Structures are given as C-alpha cells and as structure tokens.
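Quick check before the chapter quiz. The format below is the same one you will see on the exam, so make sure you can read both the input and the output lines.
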Amino acid sequence: MRADRPKQYLSLGSSTLLERSVQCLLADVRVARVFIVVAPEDCIAATLALPARCEILAAGGATRAESVRNGLRVVHGIAGRDDWILVHDAARPCLEPVELAALIDEGGLDEHGGLLATPLSDTVKREHQGRVAQTVERAGLWRAQTPQFFRIDTLRRALERSANATTATDEAAAVEMLGLHPRLIAGSPSNIKVTTAGDLRLAEAILKQQGRW
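Here is the expected output.
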C-alpha cells in the first residue's frame, strides 16, 4: 500500500478499514464478542472507538495462521470448546449482513464448518518464467473469502496439530489437514479484500452502492 501505517488502519470514509470490518461482524446479533488480534507492539488499535463487545488481543504472530492460533490460546477459558468462531480479515470491509447470516445459518449445521467463497468465472493460467505453462480447468474451483466459521475446538486442533498448519493461508486449509471438508457457502464478489490503493477506491464505491457510506 506504500502507506505510513498498516493497511487496516487506513481511512475509508469516517472510519478505518478495521472499524468497518468489525461493524460488519456486529451486524448479526448472534455474534457475542469480537476479538481483534494485533501485533504485540501495535499502538493504534487501542485508540479506535470500538464497540463495547470488542476486545483487543496483543497476540499477533508472523503469519495469519499464527495470529489465529495465538488468539485462540488467549480466549481459552472465555469461550467453550463447542462454541463457534468466525475468523474475518480486517481488510474486508464490504461484507454484507445477508452473507454473514447465510454463513452462520448454513455453516452452523455442518460439523466440518464452512466459509464464504465464490466460484471462479475467469480462465485461469498457470505461469512459468513469465509464460503460460498451463490452462487450469476452472470447473469446481472457488475463491475463498472470509469470514470462515468453525467450532473453536476444531479450529484449535487444526492449528495446534501440525507445523504445516501454521503456514496455511486460511483456516479452512488448516481444518482440511484434519481430514475434514468445510462447506462452501456462496458469497458475493463485492466482499473484496483491500490489498492495493485501487482496492480502497473500489471499496468506497461498493459501500456507497450498499448505502453504508
């Protein structure tokens, strides 16, 4: 992003990306608490005007999987092993309530858990040294999003069980290492992950279209 702060603290209208992503989760009354996992040296999160149901955990790791694992260790004893947990990217501020509700409704009926995702519609190329090496068959391929939704004990076991799990790029990949098959729940292409400066402008346009600006 070439910014002077981590991207989750960049402004998107009157709020930061992080604040908007938290508001997305709190749109569903079934979300009892939101734990925000940040780096131990983070000094910005505590300055935000976060709702009362939010708690900052200075337990972030070097990777996403480590941060989630460390966060689960901290909340051990607060949440029961059979409780469900949503893991959401701080840089996905355009999640709509209907998508979150569908994930909780459908994922909560499946002991393997679930995640929002969208089927691929583009033609996919595998690259080698700057050239097309292969055209990948896209049938059955989905683009993973967040939130991802699992029982706490399932996700904890997935992230603690194997060193490979700490390099997993999403929670579903770690859960798959347990031999489980999380349910794919159709999300929306508007649930973008802000990665570049152009994505910030796109997120603004999406939020305005949703009437949430």
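If your answer matched, good. The mean pLDDT is 95.
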